[in-house]
Amino acid sequence: MTRAAAWALLTEYTKSESLRRHALAVEAAMRAYARRFGEDEDRWGITGLLHDFDYERWPDPPDHPLKGAAILAELGYPEDVIYAIKSHADYLNLERRDKMSQALYAVDEMCGFVMAVALVRPNKSIHEVEVKSVKKKMKDKAFAKGVSRDQLVESAAALGVPLDEHIQVVIDALREVAPALGLDGQAQGPGAAS
């Protein structure tokens, strides 16, 4: 299980630039939490990178993420990686039984929300986003209305991280890969992130 192989798998199944950017964002946030919890950064990062790799082909439950999970199993990915990916889907009702599963669930929606906040900034830069601006947008029900505010709050609590701290971890992680996300105020596409 290498990052290069995971990136190749992602790009084989996912052609959408926005979905690739989301995968890179979740990978960065998962790496940040792996460092925080003293876990395997590559394992957690690859889990984040691949969590939605099947979504473009099979967007409907339960195909996503179960089709992808079957592919990962055939390719020999570890059971804990596959389980974490499956458990990020609410409709499967799987217990998030370890920190990796809890972290993936917590960062998935938060990454998307924080990226949306960055995209409405004047320079479309993650470097202009602060915790208070994210929390302000969370109160605006018309903004990113598909994102459950309860899920953002409850998933951070389940991970054992205060909400403000969780938002900051995600912001900092996204800043590390801002060019690949197109959120550094410049127009750049996704690519190989750390």
Which properties best describe this structure?
mainly alpha; 194 residues; Hypothetical protein af1432
What form results from the Cα inertia axes?
A: globular
Radius of gyration (CA) equals: 15 Å
CATH topology: Hypothetical protein af1432
Number of strands: 0
Give the class-level CATH name: Mainly Alpha
Structural class call reads mainly alpha
Strand content: under 5%
Distance from N terminus to C terminus (CA atoms, Å) equals 15 Å
The helix fraction, in percent, is 55-70%
TL;DR?
The chain has helices at residues 3-13, 17-37, 41-50, 63-74, 79-87, 99-119, 131-139, 149-159, 163-176, 178-181. The protein is mostly helical and 194 residues long. Helix content is 63%, strand content 0%.
Chain-wise SSE layout:
Elements lengths: L2 H11 L3 H21 L3 H10 L12 H12 L4 H9 L11 H21 L11 H9 L9 H11 L3 H14 L1 H4 L13
What this model shows, in words?
- This protein is an all-alpha fold and 194 residues long.
- The chain has one domain (3-181): Hypothetical protein af1432, CATH 1.10.3210.
- It has helices spanning 3-13, 17-37, 41-50, 63-74, 79-87, 99-119, 131-139, 149-159, 163-176, 178-181.
- The longest helix is centred in the first third of the chain and has 21 residues, at 17-37.
- The protein is globular.
